[in-house]
């Protein structure tokens, strides 16, 4: 039988089961056990943080649209200023790099090097060479149809085929044993239509076309070229033996490097690749003046545009910071509730950064698309793809950097003070 005190004592309620925070998985205050998923209290879940950050961006359309607009304006200004300069720089560099800065020339001025023509085939196989050809010794030829009364021009054997830098403008490309004349030589010989015969007296070659050379090869427009084999023909006739013919020699060799960076290695390797009796007698020339000009032009065009881009990005960083400060201030009670329920400071920082990143991506898509259209409209060219990707990446990074101070401020606020009812 119970005493009167026991009969009057109120019943002790049973404790409610602990319910972790749905966002962070944090256990209620006063417990330190791990959650059923094995996480420590307050550990953020990346997938839920990412989803919640995107929802937060959609839930604050004004702040998100403002941040996206700032990023888009930054991209537009960068493309309208620095992007225009980058497009112009790319056009200038493409013109400089067309041939003048990548052509390597080797020649046997005295004829004592005995440079073999078959070396052009080995040279053309190198990965750093776009194309290569060689020229042999000069033969003076005239128009056979004028009875030898026309002025003479220089004919050279061509080894390695007609290069792309020599464009056939009349007729067709020559085969072995046929001749093609340069535009200046065609006027001299009276063969502007690209049809006729040239002769040096004992030998004759049919003319099948006219070519035009420009840039560093412009001097070849005043001559005649005849494709020839790079190895000697087998001897024929009575009393001859195999291997009696000497190797075919070339006097000039031209090689086009794949890019500017391959010019110096190609020039260094060229004497070793091309067989010669006296390799030291081979003179190798590189376009040093054009390379210096390229560096100067690239530096002058890029310096001012990079400074302007830095200013624009700095202004964008300040505007993003101000925008996100306002967005964070509008959600201070939400962040306070999360902190009171056990959300970590890291979770709050990630939420702010994800919200900013979503806005920045939308702004980059809009700004880069509009910027490329503006640059193409103004210059007719587009910036290098690496420049476009760099601007997009910098814009996103600037937005995230601008959101760091507001995110830190939101994470370090006292949740008790935020949730206190006045």
From TrEMBL:
InterPro entries: ABC3_permease_C, Macrolide_Exporter_MacB. The keyword Transmembrane helix applies. It is found in: Cell membrane. Its main location: membrane. It comes from the Bacteria. Residues 1-46 are annotated as: Disordered. Pfam families: FtsX. The chain crosses the membrane at residues 308-328, 348-375, 387-410. It is a multi-pass membrane protein. Residues 34-46 have a biased composition (Low complexity). Residues 309-413 form the ABC3 transporter permease C-terminal domain. Belongs to the ABC-4 integral membrane protein family. This is FtsX-like permease family protein. It comes from Oerskovia enterophila.
